[in-house]
Amino acid sequence: MTEPAAIGFFDSGVGGISVMREVRRLLPAEDFLYYADSAHCPYGVKSPGAIIARTRAICDFFLEKGVKIIVVACNTASVVALDALREYYRLPIIGIEPAVKPAAAVTKNGRIGVLATGVTLSGRRFNSLLERFGDGIKVYTMPCPGLVELVEAGKNEGGEVEAVLRRFLAPLLGKGVDTLVLGCTHYPFLIPLIRSLAGSGVCIIDTGAAVARQVARVTEQMNPAGTGAGPGKEQFFTSGDPGAVEAVVRHLWGDPGAVVERVSL
Fold first, then answer.
1. What is the CATH number assigned to the segment(s) 100-206?
2. pTM higher than 0.90
3. Catalytic residue numbers?
């Protein structure tokens, strides 16, 4: 009997696990493949051409594995490569973008802060979001070099991470923002620390749940009868050091038995 096709997720590293975690809550019976492009992380310092080349290589790998949906679980890759990927491949490709629209809907004082990589903040997709949903509100952006690398090292709490976060949050909080948008899939792993630093009066918005709902809708459209009872399985791959990545995957995914296989693309 042929196994059902899996859903493929990828990111520059382990950050996209935050998105896959949300999808797992909605789709407990689906099989997942995850590719952490750790040898080329972070994408936020790379040229658009390099990012598109990497994402194409990963999508080709997923197609060889027979996936039915690809989730670009990376804001930077979505900003740079999503349109190109959708033009090139015929299967559903779902991306992610900073949640400016939801933030504009919930802010009470009209002041929003966006934490993201420099590439995401300078991209056409992000500027389009501001044009469409930023009318009447003030959006303050903050590029956060170094945060991705900390999460990649399995550091999502402690003094070192707190010091870096304080440096990025202080200017935004000084502007009086009452809503923070997490514009990188690595950042949800820092939510407890961000919340403690920003205070209870600041709303923190992550787009993982919205992406999960879209993945669930597309999955249902492809198979209205649904998948079996499950539970679904996960397979993890990386372009980096599998031992180092495996330790972080186990920590972030919450499975001490998770195994990461090295696949160079």
1. 3.40.50.1860
2. yes
3. 74, 184
